[in-house]
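Lab notebook: predicted structure, single chain.

Context: the supervisor wants predicted structures on file for every construct in the current expression panel, including those that have not yet been purified. This is the next one on the list. No modifications to the sequence; it matches the entry in the shared construct table.
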Amino acid sequence: MAKNKTLTKGSALAILDKIAFFDDLNHAEKKLICDFNCHFMTYERGHFLTDENSLDKRFFILLSGGVNIIKGAQEQLIVQLKPGEIIGEISFLSNEPRTASVVANCDSSALVIDPDLLDQLPIEVREKVKDQIILRMAQRLNHMNNRLALGHL
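Prediction complete. Output recorded below exactly as produced.
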């Protein structure tokens, strides 16, 4: 089960400084995100961040550890993600059910962003977060297109 991660503002800031997702944010903007410390969550190995077909409206920025994206009753492994990657952005943006489950493959932590948190951020920070989501979705699509063209899918 997910637990609230107890982080000092300084510890949270040190983590955000290491994650490329936040590179476009200045120091003050990162500190502002750290004020929402209840959104810094930890997950023990084997625990689910979200389930396939759920209507969960959050997305995650993986801060430490790793997760497996799995699909179906047989829990087919789709991909493993590492710190700095985003999870659940499609459901967050489209309001569609989750297309896969996400399970921690080791002790992990994530910043969990829901619509309410995003609305509370100043517009400049919100736009930078949205820009990063778009960039990462485009990179993923490009990667998948390249794999498809090479016959690796």
